[in-house]
Amino acid sequence: MKNKTLDQYWNCNLRYLVILLSIWFMCSYGFGILFADSLNQIKLGGFPLGFWFSQQGSIYVFVLLIFIYVYLMNRLDQEFDVDEK
Amino acid sequence: MGIQTWTFLIVGITFLLYIGVAIWAKAGSTKEFYVAGGGVSPLANGMATAADWMSAASYLSMAGLISFMGYAGGQYLMGWTGGYVLLALLFAPYLRKFGKFTVPDFIGERYYSKQAQLVALICAIFVSFTYCVGQMKGVGVAFARFLEVEFSTGIFIGIGIVFFYAVLGGMKGITYTQVTQYCILIFAFTVPAIFISLQMVGNPLPQIGMGGTMEDGIYLLDKLNQLSVDLGFNEYTSSGMNDRVNMFFITMSLMLGTAGLPHVIVRFFTVPKVRDARVSAGYALFFIALLYTTAPAIAVFVRTNLLQTVSNKPYAEMPAWFSKWEESKLISFDDKNSDGVIQYVANPSSNELTIDNDIMVLANPEIANLPAWVIALVVAGGLAAALSTAAGLLLVIATSISHDLLKNYLKPNISEKGELRAARVAIAWAVLAAGLAGLNPPGFVAEVVALAFGLAASSFFPAIILGIFDKRMNRQGAISGMIVGIVFTTIYIWYFKPQLGGIGTPEGYWFGIKPEGIGTLGMLINLAVAVVVSRLTPPPPVDVQNMVENIRIPRGAGAAIEH
């Protein structure tokens, strides 16, 4: 495979990583820790929102992020014809 | 039937099951022994990874710990799950494509250096062994309590059982046994939680139930906040009094450490393809999340129940479980003002009740008056959690010795049969050594586990990530980074942990960071040193650069191969 396409593939991968890891950081460190106090003013049913992110929400987001990554990468692999036969 | 009979019955059946599975999945080759032949389905691998990951501590102690910490307990919940996102996105697919057996393999080859491999090898053995000693101790405690035998007898039973299936089955046997153990432990963990959630808020899903309303129409969490504040504790859900900097650093250190732990990483060598490695991390985290989202719910239920049951109640009216745990010294009541009533309050000088974190999960079914078989099930689940983690760790130690040390260093010409035999001998010795160390645990075992995470975060994490994402990273950079990271983290933890003989005091913490969170800083220092040194020294050889290009694309990943 030409290096040009390999670079494109890799850059696209890196872009996905940056986006997904920003969400990862925001939901855990952002909502769960740094902004937890202000979010706690908002209620989600019986949960103060900051508390919910720290003990429930961030974990759901983590699981989702991995499956989104898997979906994106499988599509990307096929697009650039580097998937496993 | 009584609790004791049920316990013997259920624990006995589950053990027969593990041994049966181990015999069925006996390993015949080194490849099967180290990475289960690279042929485990992603779903099974996900379950095995989850069982491997969730130790006796996750199962028995975590919910209790959270119930005492409240909001701040989130650092463990996020810290021990978020690392899997890093693993899935940054490590698993590339290491699978690389296609060797161990982390030191990768370090040695990527940095074209036997010294780098040796540094990684020593770290891997140290990290896994300290972690394993804690597990063996957990196994001993669990057996001792449930079979009502001495602690030492408990450990010997544990050694015997781990010995049998780890030595026989290798990675293949362990993987399939762990799948079985996962099913048992998650069933045992969630069933009582569902019962209690139904009792307290009428919702069968504990994750939602913890935010539900009680019979009187008040939100459970509001009620708990009120109860806590009345007794002088912090509001359960509030972060007001907590130390934000340390929560940040500890969470990060646990995440980076998770992603750098050799016994977790090696899991992603066992699946057939790169795409399987990616999705396998997703399954693993899903299975882990089932327990990790239930634990905080249990923490809320048990905390509320406990405060309602014991606080300001006459000692003489305590239920049977209270005196049972009192006998084993896990609850103690000291009637300071001699009024015969239990004062459980935040102020240590007037507080009369001391409760060990570890009993919350175990006592939970009894506090909620659940049937005897549920209590027995919780016991079997705890044993499954301890055994599966110990076995996975022992395998990493054995692989490090027989493969990395013996085959790569001392006796490169060793035959496949000889290597397999050496691996079995190594695992046998490792079980014994860890068991004996667990038998007479140096008081600092718990402290050393913090060190294990800190070291994994400050040594492996940057070395692997730079190896994949920075083509320019060379031997000089990686080695100097690892050494600086390890030395810094070790000294900091040692210096500020009086349990390890350190002389530092909390006033001396850098930026107020506790030793548990210092791995994060160690990682950053490692990263900075590695990047600077590598840019001042020659780039890595062309064939190494080609190798990095090659692991970045999935195509062409064979089964895990020999050298």
Describe the structure.
- The complex is a heterodimer of chains A (85) and B (563).
- In chain A, 79% of the residues lie in helices and 5% in strands.
- Chain A is mostly helical.
- In chain A, strands 1-2 form a two-stranded antiparallel ribbon.
- The longest helix of chain A is centred in the first third of the chain and has 32 residues, at 3-34.
- The mean pLDDT of chain A is 91.
- Chain B has helices spanning 3-24, 30-35, 42-53, 56-69, 74-98, 103-110, 114-146, 151-201, 206-209, 220-230, 244-260, 262-265, 274-310, 320-327, 359-367, 372-410, 416-439, 445-469, 475-496, 518-536, 542-551; strands at residues 331-333, 353-355.
- Chain B has 563 residues and is an all-alpha fold.
- Chain B is globular and about 75 Å long.
- Chain B has one domain (3-551): Sodium/glucose cotransporter (Up-down Bundle).
- Chains A and B meet through helix 1, strand 2 and helix 3 of A and helix 5, helix 10, helix 11 and helix 13 of B.
What attributes does this structure have?
heterodimer, A: 85 residues, mainly alpha, 2 strands, B: 563 residues, Sodium/glucose cotransporter, two-stranded antiparallel ribbon, 21 helices, 1% strand
Task: Give a short summary of the structure.
The complex is a heterodimer of chains A (about 80) and B (about 575). With about 80 residues, chain A is mainly α.
What is the residue-mean pLDDT of chain B, rounded to a whole number? 85
What distance separates the N and C termini of chain A? 16 Å
Rg measurement of chain A, Å? 18 Å
Helix-residue proportion of chain A: over 70%
How are helices and strands ordered from N to C of chain B? Answer: HHHHHHHHHHHHHHEEHHHHHHH
The CATH first-level class of chain B comes to Mainly Alpha
How would you describe the shape of chain A?
elongated
Helix content of chain B: over 70%
Q: What number of structural domains do the residues of chain A give?
A: 1
Molecular shape of chain B: globular
The number of helical runs of chain B is 21
CATH architecture descriptor text of chain B: Up-down Bundle
Task: List the secondary-structure elements of chain A in sequence, H or E.
Answer: HHEEH
Count of separate structural domains of chain B: 1
Strand content of chain B: under 5%
Query: What is the CATH fold-level name of chain B?
Result: Sodium/glucose cotransporter
Poorly predicted regions of chain B are 559-563
